């Protein structure tokens, strides 16, 4: 094998354009393979979803997460066969003390959210207080294995 080294090197350097294109196509192929593998793992090797999460569909405004859907859309979505409940989530840019303490904040319909999100559990007296309070906030515990 070592005897063929100079011959291989001479042929690689003989046509540099071909050698560079061969290396570039190999690099692009490997990058594409890595990207597709990462996407596959992201879709199919996620933590197990709860049964209610597996049956949930989220619709949002085409412009932005901060834009609400028109109210007529709720009735159209509710009319689709198999849809049990429809509720709005509205993201808002509230602040909690300092910017470093950022977390996502959503305004929800307190009467419907715990019927839709069955994986969210709260003691009954706290749930009643959450539904009663206009400025109430529900904050969950960090799930095991979560990095955020």
Largest sheet: 2 strands, antiparallel
- By DSSP, the count of extended strands is 2
Q: Could you spell the SSE succession in H and E letters?
A: HHHHEEHH
Mean pLDDT: 83
User: Cα-atom Rg, whole angstroms?
Assistant: 27 Å
Q: Main sheet: which strands, in order across?
A: 1-2
Structural class: mainly alpha
Q: Strand-residue fraction?
A: under 5%
Notes on the structure:
The chain has 148 residues and is mostly helical. 43% of the residues lie in helices and 4% in strands. The protein has 6 helices and 2 strands. The protein has helices at 5-14, 16-44, 51-54, 71-78, 113-116, 124-132, and strands at 89-91, 106-108. A two-stranded antiparallel ribbon has the order 1-2.
Give a brief description:
With 148 residues, this protein is mainly alpha-helical. It has helices at 5-14, 16-44, 51-54, 71-78, 113-116, 124-132; strands at residues 89-91, 106-108.
Question: Helix and strand layout, with pairings?
Answer:
Blueprint: H1 5-14, H2 16-44, H3 51-54, H4 71-78, E1 89-91, E2 106-108, H5 113-116, H6 124-132
Antiparallel strand pairs: 1-2
Keywords:
148 residues; mainly alpha; two-stranded antiparallel sheet; 43% helix
């Amino acid at each position: 094998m070592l005897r063929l080294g100079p011959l291989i090197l001479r042929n690689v350097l003989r046509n540099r354009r071909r050698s560079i294109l061969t290396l570039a196509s190999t690099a692009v192929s490997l990058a594409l393979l890595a990207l597709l593998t990462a996407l596959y793992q992201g879709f199919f090797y996620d933590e197990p979803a709860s049964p209610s999460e597996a049956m949930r569909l989220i619709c949002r405004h085409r412009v932005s997460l901060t834009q609400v859907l028109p109210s007529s859309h709720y009735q159209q979505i509710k009319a689709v066969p198999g849809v049990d409940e429809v509720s709005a989530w509205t993201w808002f840019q509230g602040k909690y003390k300092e910017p470093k303490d950022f977390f996502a904040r959503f305004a929800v319909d307190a009467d419907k959210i715990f019927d839709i999100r069955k994986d969210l559990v709260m003691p009954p007296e706290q749930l009643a207080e959450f539904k009663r309070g206009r400025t109430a906030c529900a904050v969950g515990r960090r799930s095991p294995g979560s990095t955020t």
